[in-house]
Amino acid sequence: MKALLINGSPHPKGCTYTALEELARTLEAEGIETEIVQAGGRVVCGCTGCGACRKTGHCFRNDIVCQLQEKMAQCDGMIVGSPVH
Length: 85
Prior knowledge:
The chain is an alpha/beta fold. Helices cover about 35% and strands about 20% of the residues.
């Protein structure tokens, strides 16, 4: 089993990361493989409705969403950490 943990904070090693890291340790103690991905602070573009994804299977923009799409396809669970400001 594999879980993907997404850090939505713009601070790569801040409080949200610390919480995700603790959760990852707990999951790994149960035999679940984990990966933490830094998504916060990265550019995410909106959909233009061009339809390229229907033809190629992915968006023409190579942003964090495309990178996460590949990782999500390989995992059994996903956790998103979001900061509260």
